[in-house]
Design goal:
Helix content is 41%, strand content 21%. With 479 residues, it is of the alpha+beta class. The chain has 3 domains: 280 residues, no CATH class; 114 residues, no CATH class; 65 residues, Arc Repressor Mutant, subunit A (Orthogonal Bundle), CATH 1.10.10. Strand 7 and strand 8 form a beta hairpin. The chain binds zinc ion. The site of zinc ion (ZN) has 8 residues, from loops.
């Protein structure tokens, strides 16, 4: 059967504000349970909310980066439903007048359109425990209740699980890049629901929503499973039920959570405790000015301005801090390709092994450029630089000082080099004999021995030159 897959995503992103959306409690992850709470976020009677301007500004920043239109007038609404992780029994969200409308995000050759971006409060976190003393327990932690949550809703423009995956990867990168959220899925800072249906010609099957997928891999797996499930139902001539499903990680299947509720089930109405939100045009102008150059544009610029290939430009721009570090280094040492090779090679290897970003170390672009200058001036060898790079990143020390302290500078003194050459020739009389008898291949073996003897500090060019001269001399003497 010729079926087309149609997917829309709803992404929830916790915004990186200092405090919660409607009270002064701290917005931080990992505190002991129920320590960042107050009458407002616990929903105690009589407590009144006040909106956090910082959250509104971060949402505007995200919306601008995603090409959305900011609504100058918007408001909060109550979404009524009962759930133990939501002490007020309603969630303050936005219904008919979201803060931003429209917009798009590009993936590969496709523009994925956005429906809306709105602001709402997060709920608390429930931990369901198994049987303890023959009872079932659920623990509630309200630290997360009231954390500002941005909801991004896409149009149903995605046609495969791969596209959904690409979209999420690109979205996370932009939001991290502009600094509105840490987007840590493992801490719940970014969560995703998906609506999925299959269509034959113009007949759309019922929509199924998959909730609470907490990793990109699970999104891909769950969508893949759901596409197959719906296809089988339709091919049997049956109807897909409209319902909300969840992903069972152990069984690797989607399971029914509940039959779908409609918007009217939530009895939305305007939040009476909060005034409408009026956005000033000058806020938007100010934020526009603060949005950094976005990854796609920067990749293009790196290719054109620094003559990097597309692969290098992309890898460097996987994170903004790395990309910034690259350009900072260029200010002191202009060799883009060489800097890139180091950053993507030995430096990335070290950072990955420690799970660190470059700005979480003491290593500075200035010291890095100094190291490159030392290699360039042949004051140290590239090999020595590789040997000390970890120490430089960890200590943040000046490479010049470290090299002097350790006596790692390159040997360019003729006498010292000749001494090493004589010694090696003496220790390898048989090889020398072979060379003199015309087996010139052994030359590089001797160079290797000399480099070994000097612990890689000998200037290779000089070693080559001096060794050649010395061997020629001996050849003549022999004849
Ligand atoms: Zn609070």
């Amino acid at each position: 059967m010729n079926l087309r897959t149609i997917i829309g995503l709803e992404i929830h992103v916790e915004l990186a504000t200092k405090t919660k959306l409607f009270c002064g409690c701290l917005n931080i992850f990992g505190s002991p349970p129920n320590t960042n709470v107050c009458p407002v976020c616990l929903g105690l009677p009589g407590a009144l909310p006040a909106a956090n301007k910082q959250a509104v500004l971060l949402l505007i920043k995200s919306a601008l980066a995603l090409n959305s239109e900011i609504s100058l007038f918007s408001k909060f609404d109550r979404k009524n439903y009962f759930y133990p992780d939501m002490p007020k029994n309603y969630q303050i969200s936005q219904y008919d007048l979201p803060l931003a409308k429209g917009g798009y995000l590009a993936i590969k050759d496709k523009k994925v359109n956005l429906k809306r971006i709105h602001l709402e409060e997060d709920t608390g976190k429930s931990t369901h425990l198994g049987m303890i003393d023959k009872s079932l327990y659920t623990l509630e932690d309200y630290n997360r209740a009231g954390v500002p949550l941005m909801e991004i809703v896409t149009e149903p423009d995605l046609n495969s699980e791969e596209e959904a995956y690409d979209f999420l990867v690109n979205l996370r990168k932009i939001l991290e890049w502009i600094g509105v959220s840490d987007c840590k899925m493992e801490e719940g800072s970014l969560r995703c629901d998906a609506n999925i249906s299959l269509s034959k010609d113009l007949n759309l099957s019922n929509k199924v929503e998959i909730k609470n997928m907490n990793s990109f891999k699970i999104v891909e797996q769950a969508l893949n499973y759901e596409i197959k499930r719906q296809r089988e139902i339709l091919e049997k001539g049956e109807k897909v039920k409209q319902e909300t499903r969840g992903w069972d990680e152990k069984k690797e299947i989607t399971i029914v959570l509940r039959s779908k509720e409609e918007a009217h089930d939530y009895r939305y109405f305007t939040e009476p405790d909060l005034p409408p939100i009026k956005i000033l045009e000058e806020w938007i102008d100010e934020i526009k000015y603060k949005i950094p150059e976005l990854p796609q544009k920067r990749i293009q610029r790196f290719i054109e301005k620094y003559n990097l290939n597309e692969y290098d430009a992309k890898v460097l721009n996987n994170s903004k801090v790395m990309s910034d570090f690259f350009e900072d280094t260029l200010n002191h040492y202009f060799n883009p390709k060489e800097i890139c090779n180091w950053l993507m090679g030995d430096i990335a290897k070290y950072l990955n092994s420690k799970n660190l970003a470059i700005n979480q170390t003491k290593f500075t672009a200035f010291n890095f450029s100094k190291l490159l200058n030392l290699i360039n001036k042949e004051l140290i060898s590239g090999k020595i630089a590789k040997n000390i790079i970890e120490e430089l990143i960890e200590s943040g020390n000046d490479p010049e000082i470290l090299i002097n302290e350790k006596g790692l500078g390159q040997i360019t003194d003729y006498n010292e080099l000749l001494r090493a050459i004589f010694q090696i020739l003496e220790e390898n009389m048989q090889i020398l004999e072979e060379y003199l008898n015309g087996k010139e291949k052994v030359f590089s073996f001797l160079v290797g021995k000399i480099m070994q003897k000097t612990k890689g500090r000998a200037n290779p060019k000089l070693v080559n030159q001096l060794l050649k001269e010395e061997l020629e001399k001996r050849k003549k003497n022999e004849n």
